[in-house]
Amino acid sequence: MQSYIWAFLIGGLICAIGQILMDGFKLTPAHTMCTFVVLGAILGGLGLYEPLIKFAGAGASVPISSFGYSLVRGALLEAEKTGIVGVLTGIFEITSAGISSAIIFGFISSLIFRPKG
């Protein structure tokens, strides 16, 4: 039960920071999203995002900041195995399932629902 509370609090805090960026600093949603991806990548590269995921679970692994973390994690893991080429292949290997599912489900949704135009 306690892990659900921490996931809710950490996930909510990440979302609240995003809302503050949009309202207080007048950032667009696209700028806010890019900021979170870059922050996730930086924290992942410094080794600070993984402990956050272990502590908060889905509260830290669901927001867009975990995408930046995943990019860096994949690049670093593959770079250790195969060298500099692994930086590029690792990025695609670890994030391909999420990106593919987003494309597939987005396509299916576009077939089912019609946008109002």
TrEMBL record:
<dbReference type="InterPro" id="IPR014204">
    <property type="entry name" value="Spore_V_AE"/>
</dbReference>
<feature type="transmembrane region" description="Helical">
    <location>
        <begin position="6"/>
        <end position="25"/>
    </location>
</feature>
<dbReference type="Pfam" id="PF03862">
    <property type="entry name" value="SpoVAC_SpoVAEB"/>
</dbReference>
<keyword id="KW-0472">Membrane</keyword>
<dbReference type="InterPro" id="IPR005562">
    <property type="entry name" value="SpoVA"/>
</dbReference>
<feature type="transmembrane region" description="Helical">
    <location>
        <begin position="84"/>
        <end position="113"/>
    </location>
</feature>
<feature type="transmembrane region" description="Helical">
    <location>
        <begin position="32"/>
        <end position="49"/>
    </location>
</feature>
<feature type="transmembrane region" description="Helical">
    <location>
        <begin position="55"/>
        <end position="72"/>
    </location>
</feature>
<protein>
    <submittedName>
        <fullName>SpoVA protein</fullName>
    </submittedName>
</protein>
<keyword id="KW-0812">Transmembrane</keyword>
<keyword id="KW-1133">Transmembrane helix</keyword>
